Amino acid sequence: MKPQAFRYLRPQSLEEALAALSDTEADIRPIAGGQSLVPMMSLRLAAPSTLLDLGSISSLRGIRVDESGWLVAGSMTTHSDFEHSEIVGRHFPLLPMAMESVAHMPIRSRGTIGGSLAHADPAGDWPALSVACEAKLVLSKQGAARAVMADEFFCGIFSTVLEPDELLTEIHFPLWPSNRRWGLQKFARRRGDFALAGAIVLLDVEDDGRVAWARIVVNGATEMPTVLSELAAGLEGKVPDASMVEALLDQVESSVDVRSDLHASTAYRKELVRVMIRRALQQALPALEREHE
Amino acid sequence: MSEEKITIHLTVNGRPMQGKAEPRCTLVDFLRHELRLTGTHAGCEHGVCGTCTILVDGEPTRSCLMFAIQAEGREIWTVEGLGQEGKLNPLQASFRKHHALQCGFCTPGMLMSATALLKKCPKPSAEHVRDALSGNVCRCTGYTPIVDAVIEVSQRQI
Amino acid sequence: MITLEVSPAVEQCAQERAPEIGQNRERREDERFLTGTSCFVDDVARPNMLHAMVVRSAYAQATIREIDLDAARSVPGVFAVLGPDELAEHLKPIPMSAFTQLPGQERFLQKPLALGRTVYVGEPLALVLAESRYVAEDAANLVEVDYEYLDPVPDFQSALKDEALVHPGMGTNIASHSTVSKGETDEVFSRANYTRKETFYVHRHTASPMETRGLVAEWDALAARMRVWGATKLTFRNREILASMLDIPESSVEMIEVDVGGAFGVRGEFYPEDFLVPFAARWCGRPVKWIEDRAEHLMATNHSREMECTVEIAVDKDGHILGLRGDIVVDMGAYIRPNGGVAPGKCLQFMCGPYQIRHAAFSLRTVLTNKTPFGSYRGPGRYESSYFRERIVDLAAKDLGMDPAEFRKRNLIRSAQMPWDAGAMTPGGPVAYYDTGDYPSVMKQALEAFDYDSLQSLRGKKVDGKLHGVGIGCFVESSGGGPSESARLRVTAEGRVHLYTGISSAGQGHETVLAQILSDELGVPSDLIDVFHGSTSYVKKGWGTYHSRGAVMGGSAIVLASRKLQSQIIALLAQRSGVEKDALRWRQGAVLDEDGQVIAALAALGSASVKDDELLNALESEAVYSSTELAYTFGVQLAHVTVDPETALVEVVRFLTVEDVGRMINPNVVHGQTIGASVQGLGGTLLDHLVYDESGQLLTGSLADYLLPTATDFPSVEALSLEQSPARNNPLGVKGAGEGGIAAVGGAVANAVDDALQCYAVCVRNLPLSPDKVSALIRDARQKPMH
C-alpha cells in the first residue's frame, strides 16, 4: 500500500502557502497532520500531484482567547494541544473532554483541527464540535479571506466549501457562557474508533432551570453534522423533564436522515441516535437521568 | 512516475543520520530499508494497528502516517534506542519477565507506546495503561501480560 | 581408555539440578524481539533484489478476455511483468495436505494464477517485478484487465441450489458430501422424551496475524538451487510442493524459516505466491522479495469459520443426552485449499464434544462460493462445533428446567469411562479415543473458580441499565497431530548442544520450551543449548507446527534423539575402555561408571571430538518420533457478560478458561497461549467479521473495518491450566495447549448473551454478536407478541 508519487512543498509562511495554492491549474493538496490523508494516499484513494506541507507554518498553530472572550485557534493546532491546553480547559470545558476520546495518542499528537474540518469525515469529532459551538471558520486565500459559519462549511461526506486556492486558517469559537451545560456522547465499537452515532448537547440554563438556549447536533449517523433545530426549539423556554424529552425524541426519529453501512443498519443507527441524544441531555441535566430510571 | 530522491537528515536514537528517499517514501520504510533499522515494523500501513509506533520529538507517532521527508531535522527514537550496549532497559526486562510478547512483531510498537506513556504518566493505573495501549494491536498475548509488565515498571520507578 | 581432563565444570554437571520441565523460564527468543534485532522476512535483504507485487482480480466472478501488461512493463524501474503467457504452462494445481480429506474436494484445487477467468476478488492475475515496491504498485495499477462480469455465487445458500456455478466445468458447487454416524441415532430420537432442532451460524472471520505473509526467493543458477526465506509451519511439505512445481529435486530447494509474526493456522500452507515468487526469482535471475500488504492480506490469506449447522438433540427423561444429529454446510470460498478438509472434518469430529453421547449422525457439505478460499484457523472446527453443540445443549437445559451447569455435569464423560470411544466421526478417519481426563473434576474447579453459584441471582437481571448473563462452553480438544517429527542433536567443540527440530515457530516459544525438554533429557543446563527450528536444512525430514504438536511431537522426538545420543556415546566409550555398555550410565550430561565416577562429560567430549572422527559421529544423533494417537484435553470456558439494551453493546465482565492440559513444560507459555487464544476468540465472536456484498466484493478491506480486539476490549480474561491428566501416549505425558483457549469461546459468550436477554425471549442463533446484530435480535423480539 504505497502512495503515488508527488512533488513536495514545505512553505515556511502562510503567504508562501497561499501563493502556492493560488496556482489553481496545479493539483495541490495541503497536508496538515496527515492522519486521515496519508492512509487515503497509501490506499491510493487520494493521489495529489503536489503535497503542500503546512507543518512549518508556526503562525497557524496556537490557541488564544480574544478580547471578546472568543477562543481563537489556528488551524494547525493539534487535538493534543486542545486536550492539554489550560486556556481551553478553563474557558471551553467541552473541548478537552471531547479530545480525550479522539482515536489514540499518536493520532492526537499530529492530527489537527483544521485537517479534521477540511477532511469532513461524517464521523469526525471536530466537524460536529464546531457546528455545535457555532464556530466561525476563516478561509484564506492569497490577498483575501472570508468567514464561514461551521454549519455552512460542510456539504456532504468528505465535502466542504473550501476552494482549491483556499486554506482554513483560523477557527473562532464564541464566548462560552458561564451558565452553559453540555453533554457529549458517542458510541463506538472500540476505544478510539469513529462513532457509529454521537450527540453533542449545549444548554444555556437559567437559575430557575429553564433552558434559555439549546443546540443539539448529531454526529456520525448522518452525512454531515446535523443540527436538530426542532428538538432545540422544543426545549427552549421550558424546564425539561423526561417525558418531554421522549416526546421530542419521537419526532427526531422521523426527521433525521440516518445512513447505513456494514457496521450499523439504518434501524440500529436510529436507535443509537435516540440513545445518544438522551444520554447527552442527561449528562447536561443530571436530573433527567434520575427521572428516566 | 517516481520523484527524485532527497537527502534527509535526522537524529535517530541520539545519533545524527541521513538517507535518501523520494517524497512519497513513508518514514517507516525509510527507517527500515534506507537506514536499515529494521526493529520498527509495518503491520497495516494505514495507521490503525500501531505496530509502526516510534517517538518523534518525544511524541508517540505512527511512522506509516508520516513521510520521511517530514522528519527532516527531527529527533526520532526507535526500539533500537531503548536498551544500552546490549542490555535490556527496565521496561524491556519487565516485558520479558511477564511474558508480554510471543511472536514479537507488535513488540517494538508496544514498547515505544509504553515508553511514551511512562514519560507522561509515571504511575498509571492498569486502566490507563490499557487505554494508552489501545492503539497497539497484538494478536498473541491478549494484552494482560503487557499491562502487567508496564505496571511493574511504573511501580519500581521512584 | 579415554583419559579426559576432569574439570570443575564436570563436577558441576554431575550434580543434581531441578528439572526444567515445569519451570517458568524466561524466553530466550525475547532478547532479539525486545531489542529490534529480530529478523522477520521483510528484514531479509538479498543483493540485487527485486520487489514483487501481485496484480489481483477486482471481480468475484468474471471471464478474463485479455490482460494488457504493456503499460505496466514500460514503467521505469519495472524489470518484468509475468502474466499468463509466461506462467500458464508452469501452473500446477496446489495439492491438498494429507490431513483430513473429504472426497470430492480434490476436484476444486487452485492453480497459482487465474487463467481466462477469475473466481474471487483478490485472485492473482499477474506478477510485477520492480526495483521497489512503490514502483511495482505504480505498474500494477496500469495493468489493464478486460473483464466480462458474471453474476457471482455470493453465499452458501445460493451455492447449494447449484444454479449459478463457481466452476462451470465441474457441474456443481458442492465440493464434498460426507456422512458419519455412530450408534442407532434414528432409534434414540424416536424414543426420546425431548428433542429440539435449531439452526446456528458462525460467520466468516480469520486470524489476521500482525505480520502479513511474505517471501524472499533466490535462485542460484550455477548450482540450480532455490532458497526461500519466510517459510513456516509446513516447511518440508511446502518444499516438496514447490520442488514439484519448479520441476527440480526436493534436495535443490531450501526453505528457511526466519522469525514469524504469528501464524494461527492461516500462514504456512502452500499459497499461490509460494510458487509465483520463487518462479519469478528463477525467471528474472535476481532475488525477489514479496511482502503482502494488509489490504491484500484480508482478501488473499485464507478465510475461515463460516459454517451453518442444523442440529437436533435428543434427551431422555433423566436429562441424559441420547443423541445428536444434523447437517453442516461450510462456505469454502472459490477453491479448496490444502487444508480445506481440516475445519469441516474436525467440526464433525467434535460435535459430541465431552458428553456421553453414543448415538450421533451428521452430514457435511462443503460448498464453493465466489469468496476468498477457506483454510484452517486456530482451533479449526472446534470453535464452530463447540458453538453449535453448546448452544443446543443450553437450549435443552433451559427447556428441561435444568441449570446449564447441572445439565452438563450430568452428561460429561466420567474418568472411569476413559479411554472414551468417541466413534469414527471424521470422514474416512479412525475411531477416536479420548485418552485421559477427569472431566467432572475440571468442571467443578471451573465453576468454583468462576464463583458460578454467586452469579445466579444476576442472570437476566438489569443492574445500572445493563442486563447480566452467564454462559458456559465446554470442549474437548485434540492435539499432538502426527504423523511424525524429527529432532537432531549435535554436541559442539565448545560443549554446547545444538538442537535442530522440524517444528516451526511463530511465537509459541518453542525455542525455550524445546530447550527445557532437552535440558532435562540430557541433564545439561538450558543455557548450553541452542535451538534451530523450521528450516529444511536442519533435519532430514520434518513435519512442522500444526494441531498443537510442538511439545508432543517435537518434544517426543527430542526425547528419542537424546536417548539415541546417550546410547551412542555410551557404546563408544564402553567399546574404547573395554567395559560392558551396561556398566556405564548417563547422568546429568555425563557418562558415569559403576561406582558413579564421571568418565566423561559433554564439554570434554565435545572438545576431544575435534580430532576424533569416530567420537564426532557419536556426538550427533537424529531421531524421528511417530505417532498417530492424539492426546485429548478437556476444558470449560465461562463468560459473564452484560448487554446494554439501549446500545446493544455486549461487554465481557469476566471470561475464564479452565483446561486440563496434562503436563506443562513452561506454565507461563501455556498461560500466555490460552489468554491470547481467548482474546482472539472473544474478538472472533464480537468484532471480527469478513463481510461481502452481493456482488462478491469484500467490504471489510482494511483494519478500519475488520475489527481486531485491542487492550481495552477484554480486560478481564483469565486462564487456569491444570495438570491432572497427563497423556499416556507420548514419552513426555504432555498434551498440546495452544488452541484450547479459543475452542468454546463462541459457545460460552453466545450462551451468556442469550442468558442476559432472557427478558426478551431472544434466541441467539447467529454470530457475530455485534451491536448491530444484537440490536436486531432485541428489535425483532420486541415486535413479536410474547406468551
Short description:
The complex is a heterotrimer of chains A (293), B (158) and C (787). By secondary structure, chain A is α+β, with helices and mostly antiparallel strands.
Describe this structure in words.
The complex is a heterotrimer of chains A (293), B (158) and C (787). Chain A is 36% helix and 24% strand. Chain A is α+β, with helices and mostly antiparallel strands. Chain A has three domains: 7-53, Uridine Diphospho-n-acetylenolpyruvylglucosamine Reductase, domain 2 (2-Layer Sandwich); 58-173, 2-Layer Sandwich (Uridine Diphospho-n-acetylenolpyruvylglucosamine Reductase, domain 3), CATH 3.30.465; 180-292, Enolase-like, domain 1. In chain A, helix 2 links the parallel strand 2 (28-31) and strand 3 (50-53). In chain A, helix 12 (266-284) packs across helix 13 (286-292). Chain B is α+β, with helices and mostly antiparallel strands. In chain B, a hairpin with a 2-residue loop joins strand 1 and strand 2 (15-21). In chain B, helix 2 packs across helix 5 (144-156). Chain B starts with 5 loop residues before the first strand and ends with a helix. Among the domains of chain C are: 8-21 and 482-528 and 548-626, Aldehyde oxidase/xanthine dehydrogenase, molybdopterin binding domain (Aldehyde Oxidoreductase, domain 4, 2-Layer Sandwich); 209-299, Aldehyde Oxidoreductase, domain 4 (2-Layer Sandwich), CATH 3.30.365; 435-480 and 630-787, Aldehyde oxidase/xanthine dehydrogenase, molybdopterin binding domain (Aldehyde Oxidoreductase, domain 4, 2-Layer Sandwich), CATH 3.30.365. In chain C, 29% of the residues lie in helices and 24% in strands. The termini of chain C are far apart. The relative contact order of chain C is 0.13.
